[in-house]
Amino acid sequence: MIALILGGEKSGKSDFALEHLLAAPEPRLFVATGKALDPAFRAQIQRHRQERPTDIPVAEAGADLAGVLSAAKGRYACVLVDALDFWLFACRQSPDPDGHVRALLACLDSWGESDIFLVSAEIGLGPIAATSETRAFVRALGELNRAVAKRADKAWLVAAGLPLQLK
């Protein structure tokens, strides 16, 4: 089963996804995609680490999320990817960001029986910044979310800690 969990910044989407991971049968895998580039984000990542049980292995994906997921396929009953938006930031720093997106979607197309929960920011609910770089990222993330949602068996939007099942 493929599930997409969308939400805004600090909406509770990661907490909701973690609840699903903790309720899933073992073995389980947490895939982190964010890189600590500033002290505030470093502290946020540390808080997330402290909230997760230490017995759940963590894989750090960087831009090669498809490679990490391909290696995990069939080895884990449940995989949680937190989050596609940070992963897309990493991809956009690589020479072939579209290739990484295509590889991820192909991996999801052949996912198999284990459960995978993909967390992503729902973006574009308000005004979009005037810079072309920001607009390009917003549009790319919107397209990625739509492509993943199309493949998903289930999808939720989390707002103010409240999940709304979309699919």
Topology:
Elements (H helix, E strand, L loop, with lengths): L1 E6 L5 H11 L4 E5 L6 H13 L6 E3 L4 H8 L5 E5 L1 H9 L4 H13 L5 E7 L10 H20 L2 E6 L2 E4 L2
Parallel strand pairs: 1-5, 1-6, 2-3, 2-4, 4-5
Antiparallel strand pairs: 6-7
Helix pairs in contact: 3-5, 4-5, 4-6, 5-6
Give keywords.
167 residues; alpha/beta; 7-stranded mixed sheet; 6 helices; 44% helix; 22% strand; globular
Walk me through the structure:
The chain is an alpha/beta fold and 167 residues long. 44% of the residues lie in helices and 22% in strands. It has six helices and seven strands. It has a seven-stranded mixed β-sheet, with helices on both faces. Helix 4 runs antiparallel to helix 5. The longest helix has 20 residues, at 132-151.
